[in-house]
Specification:
Elements (H helix, E strand, L loop, with lengths): L11 H5 L3 H9 L10 H5 L25 E3 L6 E3 L3 E5 L2 E4 H4 L1
Antiparallel strand pairs: 1-2, 3-4
């Protein structure tokens, strides 16, 4: 059952003064706190460490290097021309590797 910690707390005398009807209404309202969730659907999002994923296939669309991109000779990643730090002997180096 959810508890509102900001609500004023009742003293022992006030708790003992709760009516029987109010207590019975709280007892019959137990289902209001239950969350209806599909366990199998929730479990699909969890990855277990060491899980064997060798049977899984991924589909990724690979684009060729664009005219405004270059491949860094140090990290071999494709970067935008704005990240080119320098070019030496035909080898292009990105600003991250040059730092």
């Amino acid at each position: 059952m959810a508890t509102d910690y900001d609500a004023p707390r009742k003293s022992e005398e006030e708790l003992s003064e709760d009516s029987i009807q109010e207590l019975q209404a709280r007892r019959s309202d137990k289902s209001s706190g239950v969350v209806d969730e599909d366990e199998t659907e929730a479990a699909e999002g969890f990855e277990l460490p060491g899980a064997d994923l060798s049977g899984e296939e991924l589909s990724v669309r690979v684009l060729p290097r664009q005219a405004d991109e270059f491949t860094c000779a140090s990290c071999f990643l494709v970067h935008h021309r704005s990240q080119l730090a320098y070019e030496k002997n035909g080898q292009q180096i990105c600003s991250e590797c040059a730092a």
